[in-house]
Amino acid sequence: MPASDMFRLSENIRDLDYLLATYYIELPAEADILAKAASYAVGQTIGTWVEVPGVTAEMRDRHLGRVVKVLEAPPVDLGTQSQETSGYFMQIALPTVNIGPSIPMLLATAIGNDVSTSVQAKLVDLEVPDSLAEELVGPRFGIEGVRKLVGVHDRPLVLNMIKPCTGLTPEAGAQIFYETALGGVDLIKDDELMGNPSFSPVVDRVKAYLAAGERARDETGRDVVYFPNVTDRADRMIDTARRAVDAGARGVMCAYASVGYGGLQALSEVVGVPILAHYAAAGPYFEGPGTGMSAPLALGLLPRLAGGDLAITITPYGGYPLRRLQYLKMIQQLTLPRPHVAPVFPVIGGGVHPGTVETYMGELGNDIVLGAGGAIQGHPDGAAAGADAMRQAIDAVMAGRRVADAAQEHPELAHALEKFGATV
């Protein structure tokens, strides 16, 4: 096969069934990037590091990857600029017929074979053709479905995660649930560290927490939706999720990086209620500077394609060194319109308190969930006051007021700002 047959222009690829994967790679300045990109395209599709029998012209036409773009970063056109290494963005077209409606095979194809092809490259972007997006389905509920479930259609939602993170019996956790549900919270979830342990089985928690929620509703008239954490080995996770739903749960949570994106996809196809997708254990996917994938893909696009209806996100404001650009791109991957795939409700977690509300609503708008844990359970006046303070801050921003001004009228909000700070 002529070397030139490994390359295609964007115009000849865009309407065909290819997954377009863009990578960043650094090589010695004298390296042949076009040869390296072509080798990678072969290695991720039909080839190996040596020629093998059995490859036909029909197979190449249908299953072979192609190089679409190679861009140098920074763009250098003259040989007079001396440098030891060069950075490149290379875009590879991967035939979707090789992948099918499978997130595990998508990952295996896009980043899983780089050792055998001797490439250390970071996946930084994916363009999914309509045909594959339609097969993957994505969220069954998404923002619209979750809002319908909760009955709130305009403002950000308030979510609390039960604290302490683990070690609570169902009865002890139910008392915290009750005290929290008395305040202005919409959703309550388990902490990601509370799974299905012997001291607090998921189904027992569901029964105890829902009873606590009914007690609170009798006093407040407000309903609170509980998301139990069903993260586990895939077979046990699906069984636990089904039993949790049978016990009355109207949503479930799983840590997709722990169970695998395919585990989230399987759960979404069978559970029949909204899924809160948690990023716990996702760091190794994106923290490497030259391998893995970018955070907007790992925490944005992929949990969306796999069927998460809400997705907890990382922000630059909670102590984690995520770049602000990557955080905003992650939100875009979750929420911007995409053919055949509904938008996901971003859940802002990690250091969220009333003093952060103006920043998050200012940057992201109203279609967000503000996940406050310690700022609710750790409020000086108790969990209900902590939840009320979050709602008071949201209501102030919705009304075009400064949160600090609204605090003069609400002691719960004032005490929260005094303890947790006025701004991020």
CA radius of gyration is 24 Å
Specify the CATH homologous superfamily of the largest domain.
Answer: Ribulose bisphosphate carboxylase, large subunit, C-terminal domain
Portion of residues in beta strands equals 15-25%
Helical content, roughly?
40-55%
- Strands, count: 12
CATH class membership of the largest domain: Alpha Beta
**pLDDT average, as an integer?**
93
Query: Within the CATH hierarchy, at the fold level, what is the topology of the largest domain?
Result: TIM Barrel
Short description:
The protein has helices at 33-43, 57-63, 103-110, 130-136, 142-150, 170-181, 202-220, 234-246, 256-259, 261-270, 283-286, 295-306, 324-335, 357-364, 374-377, 383-398, 403-406, 411-420, and strands at 18-28, 66-73, 85-95, 122-127, 157-161, 187-189, 225-227, 252-255, 275-278, 310-313, 345-348, 369-371.
